[in-house]
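Exercise: predict the structure of this protein bound to zinc ion.
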Amino acid sequence: MITNLNIRNCVRCNKIFMPVGGDKICPDCRAADLKTEEYVKTYVRDHPGIMINDLIEQTGVPSKFIWRMVQRGQFEHSGLRGAEYPCSNCGKMIKHGIYCEMCADKLKTNAQKFAAAMNSKQRVAESNKAHAASGKTFSNSMYDALSSAREN
Ligand SMILES: [Zn+2]
Ligand SMILES: [Zn+2]
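Solution:
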């Protein structure tokens, strides 16, 4: 008997398949992707020094697909020129990583702020618990009065 039936819909063709690990696309779509990657790589090999924009135009492969290949380092030492792709956050053209330097910095700061906010939220929750334990909670009406005062 099969328990914990592990299936999902392919995000591309919507076919039901059994994912291996975190697969989002089915084996058929993955095979098609690999074929496209091979095609693009061969095209670059046959056209050394080609610019990425020309590659996208001439192969007819979606730019997103080619950008992802660049991001994964699949064109290293391939002779592709201008191998840039947009920052996943702001769209600025970059050559390494997922985000441009500015966004990487911003995201790091945001992550730190988020962590700090989570910590203070936790502290509030803990002090509320402490109050509750000592019977010193605000009554609901008192709380309402306070919050409507703040709104005015
Ligand atoms: Zn599929
Ligand atoms: Zn950016």
